[in-house]
Give the backbone structure.
Amino acid sequence: MPDEFESINEVLIACVKACGGSKQVGAKLWPEKTVDAAQRHLLACLNEDKPERLSPDQLVLLMRMGHGKGFHEVMEFLAAHLGYSVPLPTDPRDEMAELLRQSNDLRTQLLASSERMERLLQSAAAKAGA
């Protein structure tokens, strides 16, 4: 829960731990660096006494990694400290089901539109031939 963390860095450190540790996370955030260099850079970014910081895109990637591990405390911390209701995480299966439903709806609409266009073309051709 967000109350157990006093700073954003504390909750980010917990997220890194939940995602397998600083070596694994650092390597995903900075694949161009060696594993050890990426780990050192990540640790520096999470150290409040160092100037290094995660970019917004890196923060989002870390949060996505945490979400994949069932760690939602970063989002809960941000919501609590910014005055928002705590969001509910979505299950990727639920999102996939919704996307499939939307896709089927669009397919049905496309089919109905195609049938209407064909009827209109046939009607126009019949009037032109008469």
